[in-house]
Structures are given as structure tokens and as C-alpha cells.
Amino acid sequence: MELPGFPPAPITVPAAPVAPTIVPVQETGGLYERAMLAHLHIGLWSGMKHDKELAREVARQHGSDAKMHRHTKYLVARERIEKLSQCAASWREHHRAMTLAWADDRGPRVLDGRAYEQWMSTMQCDENAFIDLKRDVLRDYPEAIQEGNRLLNGAFRKADYPTLAQLDGRITFRYEVYAFPEIRNDFRVAMGEDAFRRARARDAEMMGQFKAEVATRIKEAVRHMADKLEVYRPATHVTKAEGVFRDTLVENVRELIGMLPLLNVTNDVEIAGIAARMQSELLNYSAQTLRDSTSARITTAAAAAGILADVDAALKNMGQFFA
């Protein structure tokens, strides 16, 4: 069954953003000149419905107050929409990994101009995969309703299901960028001096939050590496290896290092220095070498501990405390 606006195409497996080569920090004027706001919105259909009549029936069976019951049922078999939901989580993570929080986690996020092309390429790849999966959901929807009728039996109600057109409108993938807002001096006239100063103060606060978020990402990745290297014990002829880690232990750190110049939207020298240290001190050995060599583990774990101490000091100096 061919659907309008959805030409046949093979499913594209969404891939994580490719880590770019570290680029030098460059001062290029205000943040509004080198960054933008990027927004990703993915609309999904849960395939679930609150059934008030079923809740009342259960209440009658147990002689309880209907207000104490809330019954949720699946309208279609979970596996029919599960893949789209799982991929959506990956797509949102791709977007989050390349951006920083702005006003809140649900709205637009800050995107460095140097990351724009990579972000757009990633979003386009994810959108292609979304189109393929959405096509499958819409194509199979009539069959899914029939299956739901069989599985729900007496709890099936045709009115619970959106029409195909309604379902099409609910499952969406949109991404866009906006100009980064600039608080200019001439805004004083319109805003008033007090409001202008508060806006400026909020701007300065956001710059600190950007640095804190990047530092926290570094801390999480480096701490994970340090912890894994500390507890790992290789196998012997009588015991199995303990605290086993995968190759991704190193690759995840490598990927973050590649992203740090693009996340460092404030061109903070301290963040750039930590990124350079991670590059030179944490990536000297492959994951396999770290498993095989005690000295490599000790050296890398010590380097990770030193970087963690510096990140903690930076966060403390900013008045930011993260567990």
C-alpha cells in the first residue's frame, strides 16, 4: 500500500553523530554571532488509551469507588510502535549531544555555528529513518486495529482509535534553527534600565550554565572511565575477569573529546585546556591494551583522576556543585 507523500525507500538506520576533529578556540565576537538556537520536536502516538468504562467495571467487581481506579489499555500490540519510540529516543539524544540547554530541556537548545552542518546532516539522516518507520506504522495500521480487536476482545472499542489521517498528523519530525537573541544597548529604551540589567545578568548566568553543563559531561565520562579502570581485574587461570568493560569505554571518551570544541560555545579557555588534556592523556591506549596491561590502566586511571580533580575545582569556583 503506497501512501501519499511517502515514496518507497529502504530503512536507514540512525547513526550517532560522527565526532569531528578538534578545532582551535577562536574569539569571534558575541555569542549571538557564533551560535544559534536549534529545536527538535518528535511527535509520537502512544497507542494507549484510558478506558473509563473498564475502570468502572473493575470498581463494580471489587465493590470499590470508581474514583480510585484508572485503567489504561494498549490499543495495538506494543511491538508495532515500539521501534519508532526507541529510535525517537536515539534521535533526541543525537540532538542533545550536539547542543546545550537554553531555557529548559523541552525547548530550543544552543548550537554552535561550527556544528551547524554536522547537526543538519544528522537531523536529515534521522528524518529519513523516521519517514521509513512512519510509513511502516501507517501501512500496517488497519491490520494493527484488527489485531487489537482480537487481543482486547470485549475491551475493544473502535472509537478509541484515531483515523489514519489523524495518526499521520500525530507522528511528526520537525527540526529548525533560530537566530540567537542579542541583548543590545539600544534595548534600554524599550525595556527600562532595571529590566535591561536583569536581562544582562541573566545572559551572564547562562554563560556560566553553558560551561557548567560541558564540565558536567566531561566529569561523567571521565569518572566512568576512572571507575571502570579501577575495579577491573583480568582473568587468571582460575578466575574470570572482574569489572569487564567494553571498547566503548574509550570510544565514548574519544567521541566527547571531538564534540567539546563545538559544545564550548563560550570559547572558554579552561574547557579547551581540559579537552586537550583528555586527548593527550586518556587516548594513549586502546581498550584491549587497557585490559591487558596493568601499567596502562594505572597510568590512564591516574590521568583521569587528575582531570576529574581539575573539573571539580572549576565547578566549585563557579559556585556549581554536582554529585
Quick synopsis:
This protein has 323 residues and is an alpha+beta fold.
Structure characterization notes:
Helix 7 runs antiparallel to helix 8 and helix 8 runs antiparallel to helix 9. A four-stranded antiparallel beta sheet has the order 4-5-1-6. The protein folds into two domains: 148 residues, no CATH class; 129 residues. A hairpin with a 7-residue loop joins strand 4 and strand 5. Helix content is 56%, strand content 9%. The protein is built from eleven helices and six strands. With 323 residues, it is of the alpha+beta class.
- Unreliable spans are 1-29, 185-189
Structurally, the number of domains stands at 2
Shape: globular
Order of helices and strands: HEEHEHEEHHEHHHHHH
Radius of gyration: 26 Å
List the topology elements:
Blueprint: H1 31-34, E1 35-43, E2 48-50, H2 52-62, E3 72-74, H3 79-97, E4 100-101, E5 109-112, H4 116-152, H5 164-170, E6 172-179, H6 187-191, H7 193-231, H8 248-263, H9 269-281, H10 287-292, H11 294-317
Antiparallel strand pairs: 1-5, 1-6, 2-3, 4-5
Helix pairs in contact: 3-4, 7-8, 7-11, 8-9, 9-11
Labels describing this entry:
323 residues; 2 domains; four-stranded antiparallel sheet; alpha+beta; two-stranded antiparallel sheet
